[in-house]
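Let's sit down with a protein and look at its sequence and fold side by side. We need material for that, and I hope you will provide a protein of your own picking. Once you have written the record down, we can walk along the chain together.

***
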Amino acid sequence: MKVNYYLYRLTLADEYKVLGNWTEQTVQVIEQHKNFLMELGRLGHLILAGRTDLDFEDKDLFGIALLKTNSLEEAAKLVSQDPAVINGIQKAALFPYRSAMEFFDNF
């Protein structure tokens, strides 16, 4: 079975770019999002995840996750289960990804 990689890009919905708009429920959903990504890692689908180290108000703020699945459809199904996306806190985009170089030992 062929393995494919997908870049999962996440951006905050506009209303959540202002920290004052975050509620306890927002924080709980982001914790669920983190747990969701950790579970993808345990299942062998998540290679890495993180975000740009910018302020929430910065227009260039985004997060990425590198996923490994058998198909785009499988990756899209996983992404559709992300609590932050389901609850409208983050917007998701999925892109096929091909690595040109890997230096994971430098991590």
About this structure: The chain has one domain: 4-98. The CA atoms of residues 1 and 10 lie 28 Å apart.
